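Open question from group meeting: does this chain pack into something compact, or does most of it stay loose? Before anyone orders reagents, we agreed to write out a predicted structure and look at it together. Recording both the input and the output here so the notebook holds the full record.
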Amino acid sequence: MTTPLFSILIANYNNGCFLEEALESIYRQSYNNWEVIIVDDHSEDNSFTIYNQLKNDDRIKIYYNNENHGAGFTKRKCVEMATGKICGFLDPDDALLPNALADMVKIHTEKPEVSLVFSRFYFCNENLEIKSECRLLIISENKSYFTNRDYGPEHFASFKKSCYDKTTGISPNYQLAVDQDLYFRLEETGDVYILNKFTYKYRSHKNGISASIDKAIYWNLIVRHDTCLRRNLNPNNYPLLDFEGYIHYVRYTIYHSRSYRLGHSILKPINKIRQMLHI
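Structure tokens returned:
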């Protein structure tokens, strides 16, 4: 098997408390021909202490934003700085499993028509202890990843740099759903391959960038709308339907919440009295 350089991309903002574990998972890889591209988005924590410990490893290249620009700008810069033929994002609070790079390189090498490879991941707690498995993504026949509309976190994903270079690149304006935007763009340059192997540990914690469901859904809808415009598709057939589904989800959540039931039980007799008194 050929051994192309793999660029592991890390966009970091105030994740110094987790970054060492992410880097340790890279050092444990069975595939050794890699580089790490770290772009720091003006962190204010102990990230710089860790960077100083890495300065003697020429496989790790660190770049700094002169101010906080957000996820889209920073991830775009990560790809621009990469020199590998294959790239993949590792969030600084997550970790790779030991065979992640080897599994990805094998698929990309054997399948030149593939631009993007998805794999599977474990949901973990804040201590990176495995709690559950992600679902296996299945793209229905005669549908693309975009039109399949089964969107969720997809880790670990890797892509050919040559395919990325055929796109206009990650939008620097997106604050969330940046990976989703990347996947849609890559699908436009080649095939999508789903690897049924676990390669990644996804850490759930209170400070995670995707912790706010409302913000994540908002940015996902923006990305889908922009994808429709880029592909000359009718937005009413995709993001609008997803938005309507979100509204139904919010309504259901409110109606079945404890606070709503408690408020309803208190107000119901009051409203009945008001009706009797014609108030």
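Observations to bring back to the group:
Residues 213-231 form the longest helix (19 residues).
The chain has a mean pLDDT of 86.
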